[in-house]
Amino acid sequence: MPDVELILLRQLASQLAMPIIVVDPRGDLLYFNEAAEAILGRRFDEIGEIRRGEWSAHFQPTDEQGQPIKAEDQLLAIATDRGVPAHSTYWIRGLDGVRRRIEGTSFPLVGQNDRQLGAFAIFWQPEES
């Protein structure tokens, strides 16, 4: 049974117009909202949960120079493993095959009594100058 905080965060995310991803303490995908679907290239209902080790294979995150981003240096890994917020601009290949530049910020989710609940990220496609 998921923690009540994660249930409430998922409910909140489903009502917001900003793209949001929620992961558990291991970094496994629990949910992304409708706003995230356009960037990630598929509906959450179509793919469901993704294990942490599968993120890179699915989305192929790269830095601005096209170099793969190590799993431990990805935003949600920083938030879950190090317990600190992180911010970055990088590229992904959506599940629709389209490569997109995105910017995002991740935050660890810590419940009462220091319970590690996971993390969430808010992300967007930056406007080109």
Q: What does it look like?
A:
By secondary structure, the chain is an alpha+beta fold. Helix content is 27%, strand content 29%. The chain has one domain: PAS domain (Beta-Lactamase). It has a 5-stranded antiparallel beta sheet, sandwiched between helices.
Task: Describe the structure in brief.
With 129 residues, the protein is α+β, with helices and mostly antiparallel strands. It has helices at 4-14, 34-40, 44-47, 55-59, 75-82; strands at 20-23, 29-32, 86-93, 99-110, 116-124.
Topology:
Layout: H1 4-14, E1 20-23, E2 29-32, H2 34-40, H3 44-47, H4 55-59, H5 75-82, E3 86-93, E4 99-110, E5 116-124
Antiparallel strand pairs: 1-2, 1-5, 3-4, 4-5
Mean pLDDT rating? 92
The fraction of residues in strands falls at 25-35%
Q: Would you state the CATH class?
A: Alpha Beta
Compute the number of helices. 5
How can the largest sheet be summarized? 5 strands, antiparallel
Number of strands: 5
Q: Please identify the structural class as seen in this structure.
A: alpha+beta
**Gap between N and C termini:** 45 Å
Number of structural units classed as domains: 1
**Sequence of strands across the biggest β-sheet:** 2-1-5-4-3
Tell me the name of the CATH homologous superfamily.
PAS domain
